[in-house]
Hints:
Blueprint: H1 3-21, H2 26-40, E1 59-65, E2 70-77, H3 83-93, E3 98-100, H4 101-110, H5 132-148, H6 152-156, E4 162-167, E5 173-179, E6 200-203, E7 207-213, H7 215-221, H8 223-232, H9 237-252, E8 256-261, E9 267-271, E10 278-280, E11 288-290
Parallel strand pairs: 2-3
Antiparallel strand pairs: 1-2, 1-5, 4-5, 6-7, 7-8, 8-9, 10-11
Bound molecules: aspartic acid.
Amino acid sequence: MTVAQAACLESALADGHRLLMTGAPALSVVEAAIRLLEDSGLFNAGRGANRQLDGVRRMDASIMEGCRLRAGAVASIEGIVHPITAARLVMEKTAHVLLVGQSASRFADYFGLVRATRAKRASRPRSPQLTPRAGLSRMLRLHQAIMRTGRIRARSLGKETVGSVALDLAGTVAAGASTGGVDVMLPGRVGDTPLIGCGVYADNEAGAVSMTGWGESIIRVAVAKEISDLLASGLSPVRSANRVLRKVVDRISGAAGVLVLSPDGRFAIRHSTPHMVAGSIGWDGRPVVRGRFA
Ligand code: ASP
């Protein structure tokens, strides 16, 4: 964890705490915290999002609130700084849950979301233009070469995705996440983050869950909903998180990290990855940020 990342997380937590104390809904606090992290360029989201193998940033985000189980998400969205706000707009302005690709980008433009400025590239000698088929074939060979080394999981976990969970004064929980995906991804790859029940879940009768890690393993276990179901059955946040993370490792050699918050304010931060940069803030208003959690 860098000093800048720690400072950014602390200020997101302090802002969130201030908002909650003034009676703001958990949904707005989750969105505000993620916007700050997307804006910072320090994480794998928004301005700092990973690029897919064709050099394009395609981002995923989702948000959910636990009172009426409302949710919104975007996948493969391009050219904007705040996919989390696009996800919230899908939830609030449409009857849908998920918009994808260029249609999602146009939807974000329609609502005037801040566009990312294109980075100026140093002028390099141009490589010969490839046909789309030859380009895909080259990317596929690279992707499959890494797959064959068995290092696809390790290569998938680089800079951190961002996520947030919150509980408001009215007793509603919310969860959100925003990501640029993983390393060596084919164009069009979508991870767990925009999939409700995989990357996020929020239910006032269970709790709020936000995931990070190797999306392909999180999807196959539908991790967020599985943790939520354990919470609903009465298991604590720590035990629920540990049990499902163990399943991800044991059954499919996956890797994940999770934020879990129950409607009575108990929470857990757990990961099967070597590190997870995360933090929490309670009623006392003192942020705690670390790079590893037991
Ligand atoms: N879960 C994200 C994805 O697979 C990546 C991450 O959390 O680092 O797209």
